[in-house]
Amino acid sequence: MSMPETAVRELTFAQAVREALAEEMRRDPRVCIFGEDVAEAGTPFKVLSGLVEEFGTERVLDTPISEAGFTGIAVGAAMTGLRPIVDIMFGDFITLTMDQMVNQAAKVHYMSGGAWKVPMVMRTTLGATRRSAAQHSQSLHAWFCHVPGLKVVLPSTPYDAKGLLKTAIRDENPVVFFEDKMMYAKLKGPVPAEEYTIPFGVADVKREGSDITLVGTSSMVQVALGAADLLEGIGVSAEVVDPRTMWPLDEKTLIESAKKTSRVIVIDEGYERYGVTAEIAAVIAAGAFYDLDAPVKRMGAMHVPIPFAPTLEDATVPTEQSVFEVARGLCKRS
Amino acid sequence: MTIAADQSSNSNTPLELGLQMYRRMISIRRFEEQVNDLYTRALMPGLAHLYIGEEAVAVGICEALRSDDYITSTHRGHGHCLAKGASPDRMFAELLGKEAGYCKGKGGSMHIADPATGNLGANAIVAGSVGIATGAALSAKRLGNGRVAVCFFGEGALGQGVLYEVMNIAQLQKLPVIYVCENNLYTEYTHYSETTAGDIPTRAAAFGLQAETVDGQDVRAVHATATRLVERARRGDGPSFIVCNTYRYTGHHVGDINREYYRSKEEEKRWKTDRDPIKLLTDWLLEQGVVTTAQLNAIQTEVDAEMKKAVEFALAAPYPGVEEVGQDVYA
Fold first, then answer.
1. Over the stretch A42-101, which tens digit does the pLDDT of each residue have?
2. Which residue of A221, B119, B122, B138 has the fewest CB atoms within a 10 Å radius of its CB?
3. What range defines the domain where residue A292 resides?
4. Which of A154, A172, A192 is the last residue in one of the domains?
5. Residues belonging to chain A with any Cβ–Cβ distance to chain B shorter than 8 Å
């Protein structure tokens, strides 16, 4: 790296992810990557480009199209001295790994009375609007949030992605790390060159405000920030809070923000019904009950399979405009 | 309290090895008889899946392993744990949900795990541990520690796709893993021929694994095959697959009493009379003309005493305090 160490560079989301992986692989020879087309291809999203050249095919292992198989192998490898990172190309494919993650990875530590542990990371994607239809567009992170023993991370910026992924790799537990595939190339942000990590369970206030809190996750953080700009235009000061990790969840910061603003919208790209918005809204409703001026509002994906036609797909997920409209209604501005 | 002495017993004479395997098989059978007793006296919660009749498989395989080699086990796993060197006292404690158990009472009969003996854990999902065993073999290869992993599963696991996924990867990566299919003929209450098309070892051979079939009632045959395939794995020649033909003497679980709708009493009697693994080894030991029945009886007496003491330990041990419930969710 030719830049001075303290320089803050602009990296894409994909570059930040790749840099976290490369740094951790240099730091710890036990860290390895398993997945489909992770080596020379660097994944279809090119997130891993260059890693196999530096670390070799033993540590960046191309697997058959066997998500259950290589995820299960990662569980066993994690128990016995490696620190595997599995790459599940599309979040929709986590269905194929569910027994390995839910019945094996999440349970091994507890059901062995703490005798074994599973320090592994599953990296996968979420997010619609890529015109990929119903089996390549879902945001299914809520499923893993429901399982004790797993940690679930949803970074929303290149800075957060790098710092949180390094923490995930160093964690002694199975961590599921969801990356918004639409951000890989499109979202750029400052990432310091010097070493840093971001602890789990610490929310980040992405924008301070006083009239309404917009809790956004992953892809919906940018949507919330865009809505906040629109709200500013009508004199509404919106605070944007990103929990960053779904579990552990920073309940304190969420509740404090709600108490300050008295109105809350929780926005997430997963399905709204029984989704993470429900959990976060419940936490806020219980913790800030006497300070709320309106019921906590939730916005998530429509309860439909993600459609192909752009006109239909775009209608399924919250947008800056739709969040703005809901916020305006909550704040009773016309 | 441990049943056995040295795990790396490959240098033992055939007779010493035979006696050691005899002691281990007796230990497993006595252990399981105690489990049956505890269960029917309502002292053991949950379910109990007995390994009686299949002792030669676990013992023959595990006697071919080093103490730091890995195993994964199944819901019918007490035999594997004991054969790999687990202590009966802590096993009984786990079965009774006591804090002194291998998993502090959080796992129970179907989840015994013990890092000290390389036991990655029994697994109550059929084929649930095939990935774990294969991953352990991957670690062993990458870390260059010379260990092998043995994956025990029943023939019911042949119905799970993930088995074929990991065998494919194991062969591609030449991993030191041995898949041990215990064909006890019954997938719960269904004869395996109703659920299993084609020939079993051919399935593994199709991926290029060394696939063999062995008489799972003959502990010496199991041990000889395992020794050869473990050495093969250790020298880097890749994974293998052993079908051990065996028989589950009792029901799928204690309480599966009326079994005639899926198998006859005559069939059970035939296996117990003609194909009992302990009897077959006893006959061989006596034929050698060096061991006497009295010596074998003495081993039985010792094992009986050990099991009695282990059960007493477990019965007297305290249950975990309720404050334990939230511990060990995360490392």
1. 999 999 999 999 999 999 999 999 999 999 999 999 999 999 999 999 999 999 999 999
2. B119
3. 204-330
4. A192
5. 32, 58, 61, 63-64, 66, 68-82, 84, 99-100, 103-104, 108-119, 148-149, 151, 172-173
